[in-house]
Amino acid sequence: MRAKWGGTLACLLAAAVALGGCGGEAEGPVKLKVGEVTRSIFYAPQYAALSQGLFEEAGLAVELTTTFGGDKTMTELLAGSIDIALVGSETSIYVAQQGAKDPVINFGQLTQTDGTFLVAREPDSDFDWASLKDSTFLGQRKGGMPQMAGEFTLKKHGIDPQTDLELIQNIDFANIPAAFGSGTGDYVQLFEPQASIFEQEGRGYVVASFGVESGHLPYTAFLARRSFIEDHPEAIQAFVNALYEAQQWVERNSPAVIAEAIQPYFEDTEPGLIETVVERYKSQGSFATDPRIDEDEWNNLLEVMTEAGELIAPVPHAELVDNSFADQALSR
Predict the structure, then answer these.
(1) Which CATH code fits 116-214?
(2) Which of 11, 60, 68, 110 could form a disulfide with 55 if both were Cys (CB 3.0 to 4.6 A apart)?
(3) Strands 136-138 and 60-66, how do they pair?
(4) Which CATH number fits domain 2-113+217-331: 3.30.565.10, 1.10.575.10, 3.40.190.10, 3.60.9.10?
(5) DSSP class of 270
(6) Which Pfam families does the entry link to (predicted)?
């Protein structure tokens, strides 16, 4: 993972282009280009902010694009093609480890747990993690948060992912469900809604949650280059204000109401399935209820990365996290 980031970032950090996405002093709403790492019900508060007009009320015109993958999202951010990235906080650490002069700063948390689930081929109401020993486990991409949280959880339960089971992690993210569906692996680590789809079809069954097991951490957050934040603090503050309102809206409302609000962003997904997924994430506390990234959460992230062998050296919370906008939003 570090080698891949090294090649990608070397050129970008040497010659980052000037940013031109924000609306500056022009009249009317301030334009912000936001790139999300993937389209996922896991990010329900973001879509609620859009569907409920909260960004518009804050004086913002948010243009949302899906950038498909952490490395691609960070490339877009560093190149100035987007102003804000919704991506795992670990990507800001990878950038810092490459010696960025204009580091990427975490300024608003969206999800506070891992979003994946352990899916088995048969239902198991008395599931024990020891069942994974000597099994074939279809995991996620090395260096990404899902895989790191997965390995962290396995080790927590006394399972060495390198010696106690057959770990498969060379399948592209988009193809993992199909691989399991075609017979690869005894267990698989899946995001929603695929986990619930497998349950509906009787092809797999959720037996555990990696989000519950790995604890609170800044799993997905809004990030921007430090220079952008310094040049456009009012736009960032307006964004975080709207984000906090959306988080509180999600906290107050039922899964059915939330599912109806975000349905336009998942037109090919059956409404009942959206509600099921929202309920599962909400019940385990995956949606952050405010934008702050606490130091304990950050340190948990560092521990997860250390266990995965992806952290060169600890990166202090104060170096890559700016909670001032969240604090202001909470004090309104």
Answers:
(1) 3.40.190.10
(2) 60
(3) unpaired
(4) 3.40.190.10
(5) -
(6) NMT1_2
Here the tokens at position 191 are 């995001």
Q: Check: CB of residue 301 under 8 Å from CB of residue 114.
A: no
Q: How confident is the model at residue 18 (pLDDT cuts 50, 70, 90)?
A: very low
Domain limits, the chain: 2-113+217-331, 116-214
Question: Where would I find the beta strands (DSSP E) of 163-235?
Answer: 166-168, 187-191, 205-209, 220-225
236 pLDDT higher than 90:
yes
Q: Mapping DSSP to helix (H, G, I), strand (E, B) and coil, where does residue 207 land?
A: strand
Q: Is the pLDDT of residue 14 over 50?
A: no
Q: Which long-range contacts (CB under 8 A, 24 or more apart) does 298-304 make?
A: 298/89, 298/217, 298/218, 300/214, 300/215, 300/216, 300/217, 301/89, 301/90, 301/93, 301/217, 301/218, 302/93, 303/152, 304/145, 304/148, 304/149, 304/152, 304/214, 304/217
pLDDT at 20 over 80: no
Prior bond to 193 cis, omega within 30?
A: yes
What was the pLDDT predicted at 302? 97
Q: Whole-model pTM?
A: 0.90
pLDDT digits (tens, 9 = 90+) for 240-294: 999 999 999 999 999 999 999 999 999 999 999 999 999 999 999 999 999 999 9
Q: What angle do CA 21, 40, 324 make, to 5 degrees?
A: 50
Nearest to 229 by CA among 28, 11, 77: 77
**Nearest-angstrom CA–CA distance, 183 and 288:** 35
CA angle 189, 307, 180 (to 5 degrees): 15
